[in-house]
Amino acid sequence: MHRAALVAATAMATALVTVPATAVHAAPATVTLVPYGIDSSNQAAWWSPLDTYTPGNDYAYLAFNEPGSTAGTHRVAIARRDTAGGWTRLPVMNGAAQAEYADDIGHNQPSVARDGSGRLHVFASMHNNAWRYFRSDTVGGAPTNHAADLPDQGIGVTYPVLTTAPNGDLYLIARLDGSTARSGRLYRWNNAAATWTRVAVFAESANRAVYPDDLQFDAAGNLHVLWEWGLYPATAFRHQLSYLLYKPATGTFADHTGAAVTVPVSTATADVIQPIEAGEVYQGNDGTGPAVQSAKLTVDGTSPKVAYRYRSATNFMVRYAYVSGTTWVRDTVYSAAQTSAAIDITWHPTEQKRVYYTTEAGVMYVATKPGTAWTAAAVAPGVPVQRFAVERTTAGVDVLYLVDLTNLRLYYGRN
Predict the structure, then answer these.
(1) Burial class (CB in 10 A: 0-12, 13-18, 19+), 307
(2) How far apart are alpha carbons 354 and 61 in whole angstroms?
(3) For residues 395 and 98, what is the distance between their CA atoms, to the nearest angstrom?
(4) Tens digit of each residue's pLDDT (9 = 90 or more) over 89-117
(5) What does pTM read for this prediction?
(6) Whole-number Å distance between alpha carbons of 132 and 302
């Protein structure tokens, strides 16, 4: 972006966030324009493009696609924000050249995580491709190609989502190809040994494809896993949003009640958050009936809280699910207008659940439920947000990754 245009855009973003909100918060989030242009392919709802590091510092890492060398291509990079608010661009390198791939919208948004040694890990641009994995060889350095380090070589991989464990290890879920089903698999990066291993095939069912959504660690050091099921080989509309708990200390799996689970689970044995409703059937890309599309989770202590989009009629509404006793309970957050694919959720010590969503018009909201009704406020008034991600830092701040596809801009926010 030209410097003059960048200064003007930054001023506009700063001015926009001074508009007062009328509902949950006294003011919208503080939003800053990231000083690097993005590619139109920088869009997906089932990925983890944001990581933060706050002990003693306040760093954020925003993995993104920038324009490639020709139309219809993109290059992979990381925008790193330091404690003082300064930005550094780290190119993701494939040998001597920056990693560059053909656009495949909805499938090539990169995922990033920082391990306990400060190395950055990036998974990028995989839609039934062999691993495209990059890792820093030095702390804070540009990631380089380390695809050969992963298990399950030579298999098509899609939808990589990863997170950092309390001990500095990383955990990754992804969908892997098969002849009659596409399974969900869980992998671990052992930070001390600097090696990847496959933990388990956690979900697989005949004639179905797994769609990874999210994974989060809780206060007890256990990993919560979230995914959907679709028709094999692929579909835009999914069903039976499902949950699983993995306990690294014992290498065992459980459902939301704590009961032991044998993996891989199937559609018949999975812990289903959103069951099949009246009139709902598994459908292909031309389907118009009830369906799930995109979901995220957070934890309150050790209790999972889930936000997801569900179409029961025309619009994809926003729903919230939580455990009460031994049962999943579902609540409608918003259904007045069509929403876009992205969604996220965090847990606030006083506001409790914060559910983030955008309307098809590009307005992003955060909703809470202080009493008996949900109340929403605009997050970044005036900034058209089509895709986003949110991560709550250990310092208690919701860091925002906001994608403006209208103007091809990326914003960093704090809420």
Answers:
(1) buried
(2) 22
(3) 34
(4) 999 999 999 999 999 998 989 999 999 99
(5) 0.93
(6) 33
The single residue listed with the structure tokens 């209790």 is 303
What CA–CA distance (Å, rounded) separates 320 from 343? 11
Quickly count: other Cβ atoms within 10 Å of residue 242's Cβ: 28
3-state class of 253 per DSSP?
Answer: strand
Of 264, 292, 265, 287, nearest in space to 277 by CA = 292
Token pair belonging to 369: 């439920």
**How many Cα atoms sit within 13 Å of 205 on the Cβ side?**
19
For the chain, what's the residue count? 415
pLDDT tens per residue, range 368-406: 999 999 999 999 999 999 999 999 999 999 999 999 999
In sequence order, the 6+-apart residues with CB closer than 8 A to the CB of 79 are: 34, 35, 36, 61, 62, 64, 87, 88, 89, 90, 410, 412
How far apart, in Å, are the Cα atoms of 20 and each of 11, 13, 16, 357?
Answer: 17, 14, 9, 19
Cα 168 from Cα 156, distance rounded (Å):
27
Instruction: Kindly report the number of other CB atoms within 10 A of residue 366's CB atom.
Output: 28
